[in-house]
Amino acid sequence: MRQSTQTDAEKRVLASQRIETLRKEIRRHDHLYYVKDRPEISDLAYDRLFRELVDLEAAYPDLITPDSPTQRVGAPPLDELAKVAHERPMLSLDSITDREEVLAFDKRVRRELGKELDRAMESETIHYTVEPKYDGLSVELVYESGRFVRGATRGDGHVGEDVTINLRTLRSLPLTLQADVAPPAHLVVRGEVYMRLDDFQALNRRITERGGDAFANPRNAAAGSLRQLDSRITAERPLALTCYDTMVRSGPVPPTHWDELDTLAAWGLPAPEQRRRCDSIDEVLAFHADIEAEREALPFEIDGVVVKVDRRDWQAALGEKSRSPRWAIAFKFSPRKEITRVQDIVVSVGRTGTLTPLALLKPVEVGGVTISRATLHNADEIARKDIRVGDTVKVERAGDVIPAIAERVPITGERRAEPFRMPDACPVCGAAVAREGAYYYCSGQAACPAQLKGALEHFASKQALNIDGLGKKTVAQLVEEGLVRELPDLYELTMDQLLALDGFADKSASLLLEAIRQSKQATLDRFLMGLGIRQVGRHIAKVLARRFGTLDAIVAADRDILESVHEIGPEIAASLESFFREERNRRVIHRLRKLGMSFEEPGGPKSGAARRMEGKTFVFTGGLTRLSRDEAKRLVEDSGGRVTSSVSKHTNFVVAGQDPGSKLDEARRLGVQILTEPEFHDLLEPS
Ligand code: IVH
Questions:
Q1: What pTM was estimated for this model as a whole?
Q2: Does one domain contain both 179 and 265?
Q3: Which of 40, 203, 423, 502 is most buried (most C-beta within 10 Å)?
Q4: Of 560, 594, 628, which residue sits at a domain end?
Q5: Which among 408, 433, 455 is the end of a domain?
Q6: Quick one: pLDDT at residue 257?
């Protein structure tokens, strides 16, 4: 609690202490979330901590340090990436694919070590640490006294590109090392930046929906995202990091690679989780087989394992060649790229009407799975890769999703078909196809069975209204029999109608009707998610529901109000606005309401009268006694208003606390209504 007698200097000290506490907490939660994958607090609680820090730093800008978690947002764009020389060459690895070659590696290690150490090594136990070979791009990270100061790409191994500001945006990269094990004064770490498969697919979806070019694989996506001139773009890209080597360090060195990985982890750096310390080369072979079997289930791409002699003194004895160390080897898996033929190109229609071209392939086995179709993303992508029916192509698999065509393989003398053209009419309903950039969509909306089916499946899905028994097959029946023409029709289905459908009996029909009826009680966030508004996924639906409490409040909110909500940017705001402006969507909502849906956040703090500050803006100046700035801000936001940092003629209220600053003068000059702290409470929490 602030004391009225506090001087500015005292306040500053308190602020500075609080800032340090917040930073520590946020770093700890970042580590738990991004490195350990084991969050301890909700996103909401995290946001609160983060916002409090942002606010405090805004009030005391000179207390901002480059390692503050708030400084991960990216910096202004550069003209080019600067070059940096590595302190030690960043070596590459020799790679092998066969069992015999691994045995030969072990033999060579023994022979060379024996020569170096002048003793027989044939029967000596050589421990190997084996870890996944991540399919990303390697980076060098430099820490001075535990602080991240520089990061670079590998480049030619001697000189790389300075990507420090881009790397700062990676949440899994500690800007300050944890000091349980005191970090050395100077430390150069080597690691791999990569992208998780689910993040990669979501990113490609986002890019192609806007008509951009999809990345061919997660490695290209990671490289393209890290080597950005505009670090704000990197900040939006879901990059991950793992660290596997210290290249240079001052002070004592762990005796083995295994211990080295443990040390990296103890400093808070992400290190490979799937790793094994093997007592023999047979165990190395077994681990390789285990990881290959697990490969499909891993959330990221690996292309093999790396086998490393564990003892660092032995590593040193073995030394290195010009390009690669003699003590390590990449033991690769069989490739997951195969060559096949495009038999046809068809177009599918998604839930939002997007037309996606798909290549039908001559079935081919890629890494143990038979592939017969590949996404071509959009028309530009097909043109860029110049893919036509009959072409020979290389297909690449990234996880268990629909694979992509990496590139065309030109065949000398081949006669090719005409370039592919997107259809003028929807292949499902025949409605006209509209176009926005590279992105084509069917204009038929709910009249298009493909869109209606997609919308219903989405509405009934687990994350949305969770209607048990309303799966793909039933949705198709309902649409094809003409029983459901738009969403609200679901709630008017009858027993007789269902019983007339293939596969329905008394029990299943009444269960489905009951599940549909139950869904009327769904929470607002589920309903919002179910509507299938572009850009409004589960998380954003929750943010909206929490902030606005009722559907009416969301519909009534204009873009400014929407954008004032944390995490709602211009694209989401525009998407919401255009969705609710559309007559057809309004009608659907109106009908659903008449059928008994309430669209309110149960127990929502912000329903009805409590939203009396809708659209009002507040500015705070001076210290408050009853609340922290952050709490005051939340109070305003919970009642529909928003808080800005400077006074303008659009400001509705200036709240003047103790020792108000120049904002108060500005408010007087502009004639903005001024509130004392008690008046502020009366206004927002009338008894
Ligand atoms: S050790 C001298 N360990 O593979 C040590 N490399 O083909 C050299 N890579 O350039 C690197 N995962 O970018 C090492 N667990 C791992 C790795 C790994 C991926 C990459 C690295 C290197 C390339 C060599």
A1: 0.59
A2: yes
A3: 203
A4: 594
A5: 408
A6: 96
85 domain-assigned? no
Measured in Å, residue 244 CA sits from the centre of ligand 1 at 8
In this prediction, residue 602 carries a pLDDT of 63
Measuring from atom 10 of ligand 1, which residue has the nearest CA? 92
CATH code: domain of residue 295: 3.30.470.30
Give yes or no for a contact between 523 and 549, defined as CB atoms under 8 angstroms apart.
no
93 lines ligand 1 (CB under 6 A): yes
Q: Is 260 in the pocket of ligand 1 (CB under 6 A)?
A: no
Which of the 8 DSSP states describes residue 612?
Answer: T
- Residues 319, 386, single domain; the answer is no
Which one-letter DSSP state was computed for residue 419? Answer: P
Q: pLDDT, tens digit, for every residue of 453-499?
A: 999 999 999 889 999 999 999 999 999 999 999 999 999 999 999 99
> How many angstroms does the Cα of residue 92 sit away from the middle of ligand 1?
7
* Residue type at position 369: V
Question: Is residue 92 in contact with ligand 1, taking CB distance under 6 Å?
Answer: yes
Given the residues 107, 115, 133, 520, the one annotated as active site = 133
Task: Tell whether 362 is covered by a domain.
Answer: yes
Known catalytic membership, residue 453: no
Low-confidence ranges of the chain (pLDDT < 70): 1-4, 73-75, 210-211, 335, 367-368, 398-402, 602-611, 686-687
Report which ligand 1 atom has the smallest distance to the Cα of 91.
Answer: 2
Instruction: Provide the CA 266 distance to its chain's centre, in angstroms.
Output: 25
Q: Hey, is 222 helix, strand or coil?
A: helix
Q: What is the CATH number of the domain that holds 673?
A: 3.40.50.10190
Q: How far apart are CA 532 and CA 597, in angstroms?
A: 17
266 three-class SS: helix
Query: CB of 175 closer than 6 A to ligand 1?
Result: no
Q: What's the longest Cα–Cα distance across the chain?
A: 91
Residue 363 lies inside a defined structural domain of this protein: yes
Distance, CA of 277 to CA of 185 (rounded, Å): 29
If asked whether residues 516 and 579 sit together in one domain, one would say yes
| 91 ligand 1 Cβ < 6 A | yes
Is there an atom of ligand 1 within 6 Å of 133 CB?
yes
Same-domain pairing of 178 and 310:
yes
Name which residue sits closest to atom 13 of ligand 1, judged by CA. Answer: 138
Same domain? For 243 and 311 the reply is: yes
- CATH code of the domain covering residue 362: 2.40.50.140
204 in Cβ contact with 214 (< 8 Å) = yes
On whether both 19 and 164 belong to a single domain, the answer is no
Q: From residue 318, give the alpha-carbon distance in Å to each of 39, 96, 310, 311, 321.
A: 42, 19, 12, 11, 10
Pocket test for ligand 1, best of 192, 302, 310 (most atoms within 8 A of CB): 192
Q: How far is the CA of 395 from the centre of ligand 1 (A)?
A: 25
Q: Which residues pair with 442 in a beta bridge?
A: 433
Q: Is 306 in the pocket of ligand 1 (CB under 6 A)?
A: yes
Cα–Cα separations (whole angstroms), residue 486 to 345, 426, 501, 534: 30, 19, 18, 18
- The answer to whether 349 and 428 are in contact (CB under 8 A) is yes
Count of domains observed in the chain = 5
Cα 133 to ligand 1 centre (Å):
6
User: What residues make up the domain containing 663?
Assistant: 608-684
**Residue 76 falls inside a structural domain:** no
Pocket of ligand 1 contains residue 304 by CB under 6 Å:
no
Alpha helices in 319-403 (DSSP H): 379-385
